[in-house]
Write the structure tokens for this entry.
Amino acid sequence: MHNVADGSLTAVPQTTQSSRAGANAALSRFAPDAGLFVLKPWRALFALVADWVLIAACLALAACWPHPLSYVVAAVVIARTQLALAVMMHESAHGTLLRNRRLNDALGQVCAAGPLFLSLASYRAGHIKHHLAPMRDDDPVAAVFGIADYPVSRARLVTRLLADVCGVSYFVGAWRIVRGDFREILPKAAKSPAYILWEVVTILATNGLLFAVLALCEHPWFYVGLWLLPAITLLPLMGRIRAILEHAGLPADDDQSLNARTIVTPSWQTFLFGPHGIHYHIEHHLYVRMPFYHLGKVHAQLSAAQLLPRGNLYTSYTDVLRAVSGNDKEAAVARR
């Protein structure tokens, strides 16, 4: 087995019972159906193909119907699907795409992380640390997404969302990472020079291929306007809303059902902000080795056993945003 420092998949225990329930004895004893932990690689492959087909369809729409409305629709759906690719990178980080570790990592880097200019290995190192102690002072997710200070005032929340959609958050966040603001919080992934080169090649190759295809179709500007621009503006907005839903304003606790939320009903909001079942976030934190396509089933089992905290279950993202924001006085009182 690898150790936690190398960001290994085995850093988080693999078990059918929850080792993330802390002192919650009833939840600790609960064991989901063992079949829910069995990987079905065809479902992961289908999801990845569907994501890229949807991206291609959006680009085709913009090409066949050159109109501001089609550009806006394409940009929104492409940004949403970039978020979906980030979720598939997340699945790969947990080793739940394919059974073979090398193939799992290669698929996640080439088809999900690389196109988004990301490193699967670096993401995994930070994400494993997040799962060990969500919302503690050294939680990488809380630090990078800026969700440690909720609840906040409604005005501050709106300001942050506007900064996202204007692209300010993207560049400020990138600069903070380059400057080393998170150096003490983000663990380093052990990567050889050859592996780093491999990651760079995947980033350049996937983005180069996308640009080349669009150029051959006589729409090279789509790469900037409908791929890079949504990634800089709309994707951070959707990512922030997703991160707020998952953990913002919740306490650090050994019982991880108490420091995550779940959207219980799939809808257009979960399509936009919680693709590939990531909106079942309590369930994911309790059973990190369960693939995304089974989270809805374990949610039903946990609900039937009345083991989910009712206060952390929501029907929409708008309800969560209201819950973590208010006027300045309300936010100050809630933080105390």
Q: What stands out?
A: The chain has 16 helices and four strands. The longest helix spans residues 68-93. The beta strands are 152-153, 262-263, 313-314, 325-326. Confidence is low (pLDDT under 50) at residues 1-13, 328-336.
